[in-house]
């Protein structure tokens, strides 16, 4: 387990603490660099982020007085925290390629085209993703396995890929939030000193409302997007798959192995790694692929020639090495986030946001803004949970609120919005795994918007807000004033 202990406002010596104006300087620089690089010159995000790293490092060194060693340590701590994310990214890309070579994903597409209809596909995809994510406790595992197959099925049915990706993410994050196996769910409970099941129960009503609205929107979207499929389209896709792969129940062995391990509570990284071995073995013994060719596909990706361009495109993958482009963005974003954290920028911003809280409604809103801001600035959903969770705890106690109000708020606004930020680990992973750019699926990722909106509705109306009695509130205030290291795992 990787320990992450953020620098909080009161932990920083006043002589070393940046003012609000100084804290905003690297933020403004990052916005300018990303805008100029991505919009004006149409660059990839790596070098605009690199400019931000250089600017933030120089500003922290020569204006804030941090040593080079402190800055290196900040980068190293952030990269260490994100190392599991990076390893999972590489593993999932290898898994997808090995499952395609094994015929697993092609066969899921083959049978899925027989079971689904265009009209009901989007809401059913969201519900299936929610069920699987709840069972395995991981939105990332769900997207990297079932999600990839659903993208292919949706394309075969004529559903635009961004819509399918949005439905998958809505379901995946819904199930993840409610699962006691989820790392982010456990982390939100731990960092706010909340009982795990009290935290889950506190999220249930809001999650159900947001997801129900999302499913209804997908149902309406399905009616508009379905259109008329040519009579021979599904048959042509299935024929192209059969001409290239052995379609047999045996090819689902990697699915059984991977989800079986996940259901037994095995962490995501060893589970997905075992899935790669299962995929390679299935490719060898069912598809007849040679040992070297099977591992080469997992490493370098797949480019099948099925005789149908649509199927070729759906089953093309980059493998482990193909994930390097996205991983370099993740590394740059994590490095920048580490500099901002070590320089005290994140602590100062959270502190000043907290000063805006004068009611339950404003406290809920500030928590949501703080969590989303951490996703944008630190590019890591764990930071969006840990920093607000440890910074704002006292404010909830002062207003006589139980800790599950805070734990619910940071998950409803932090975990769910990570996939909406193109350079955040969540956005990078989902875009790379599903093959749909973040800004293209974002308008259809309804749950990502609805979850924080329902949270704000709770704060304004008082619905589902839980108060403590005076004794509990005082005790909670004393407890929440303490800080400590928090173990962060993978989602």
From TrEMBL:
- The transmembrane segments are 20-41, 48-68, 74-96, 108-134, 140-159, 205-225, 245-263, 275-298, 318-340, 444-466
Q: Which residues form the Na+/H+ antiporter NhaC-like C-terminal domain?
A: 171-463
Q: Name one GO cellular component term.
A: plasma membrane
Where, per UniProt, does this protein localize?
Cell membrane
Q: What's the short name of a Pfam family annotated to this entry?
A: Na_H_antiporter
Has the keyword Membrane been applied to this entry? yes
Q: Which GO terms describe its molecular function?
A: antiporter activity
Primary localization: membrane
What keywords are annotated for this sequence in UniProt? Antiport, Cell membrane, Membrane, Transmembrane, Transmembrane helix, Transport
Is Phosphoprotein included in the keywords of this UniProt record? Answer: no
Question: Please, which domain of life does this record's source organism belong to?
Answer: Archaea
How does this chain sit within the bilayer? Multi-pass membrane protein
Q: Which family does it belong to?
A: Belongs to the NhaC Na(+)/H(+) (TC 2.A.35) antiporter family.
- What this protein is called in its record is Na+/H+ antiporter
- Identify the species of origin: Haloarcula japonica (strain ATCC 49778 / DSM 6131 / JCM 7785 / NBRC 101032 / NCIMB 13157 / TR-1)
């Amino acid at each position: 387990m990787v320990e992450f202990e953020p620098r909080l406002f009161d932990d920083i010596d006043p002589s070393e603490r940046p003012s609000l104006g100084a804290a905003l300087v690297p933020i403004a620089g990052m916005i300018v660099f990303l805008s100029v690089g991505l919009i004006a010159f149409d660059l990839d995000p790596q070098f605009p982020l690199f400019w931000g790293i250089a600017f933030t490092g120089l500003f922290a060194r020569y204006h804030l007085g941090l040593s080079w060693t402190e800055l290196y340590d900040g980068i190293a701590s952030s990269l260490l925290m994100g190392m599991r994310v990076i390893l999972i990214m590489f593993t999932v890309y290898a898994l997808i390629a090995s499952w395609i070579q094994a015929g697993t994903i092609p066969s899921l597409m083959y049978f899925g085209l027989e079971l689904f209809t265009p009209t009901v596909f989007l809401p059913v995809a969201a519900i299936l993703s929610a069920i699987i994510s709840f069972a395995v406790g991981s939105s990332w595992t769900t997207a990297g396995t079932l999600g990839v197959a659903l993208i292919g099925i949706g394309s075969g049915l004529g559903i635009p890929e961004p819509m399918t990706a949005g439905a998958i993410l809505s379901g995946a994050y819904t199930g993840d939030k409610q699962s006691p196996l989820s790392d982010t769910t456990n982390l939100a409970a731990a960092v706010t000193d909340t009982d795990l099941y009290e935290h889950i129960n506190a999220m249930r009503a809001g999650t159900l409302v947001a997801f129900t609205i999302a499913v209804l929107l997908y149902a309406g979207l399905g009616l508009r997007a379905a259109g008329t499929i040519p009579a021979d389209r599904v048959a042509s896709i299935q024929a192209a798959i059969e001409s290239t792969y052995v379609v047999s129940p045996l090819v689902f062995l990697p699915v059984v192995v991977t989800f079986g391990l996940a259901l037994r509570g095995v962490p995501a990284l060893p589970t997905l790694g075992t899935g790669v071995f299962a995929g390679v073995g299935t490719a060898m013994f069912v598809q007849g692929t040679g040992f070297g060719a099977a591992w080469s596909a997992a490493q370098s990706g797949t480019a099948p020639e099925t005789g149908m361009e649509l199927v070729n495109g759906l089953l093309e993958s980059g493998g482990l090495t193909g994930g390097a482009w996205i991983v370099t963005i993740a590394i740059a974003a994590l490095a920048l986030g580490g500099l901002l954290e070590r320089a005290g920028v994140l602590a100062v911003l959270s502190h000043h946001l907290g000063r805006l809280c004068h009611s339950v409604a404003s406290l809920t809103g500030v928590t949501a803004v703080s969590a989303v801001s951490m996703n944008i600035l630190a590019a890591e959903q764990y930071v969006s949970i840990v920093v607000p969770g440890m910074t704002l705890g006292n404010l909830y106690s002062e207003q006589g609120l139980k800790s599950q109000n805070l734990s619910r708020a940071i998950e409803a606004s932090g975990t769910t919005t990570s996939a909406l930020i193109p350079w955040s680990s969540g956005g990078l992973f989902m875009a790379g795994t599903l093959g749909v750019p973040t800004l293209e699926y974002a308008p259809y990722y309804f749950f990502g918007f609805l979850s924080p909106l329902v949270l704000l509705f709770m704060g304004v109306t008082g619905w589902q807000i839980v108060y403590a009695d005076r004794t509990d509130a005082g005790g909670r205030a004393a407890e929440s004033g303490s800080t400590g290291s928090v173990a962060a795992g993978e989602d």
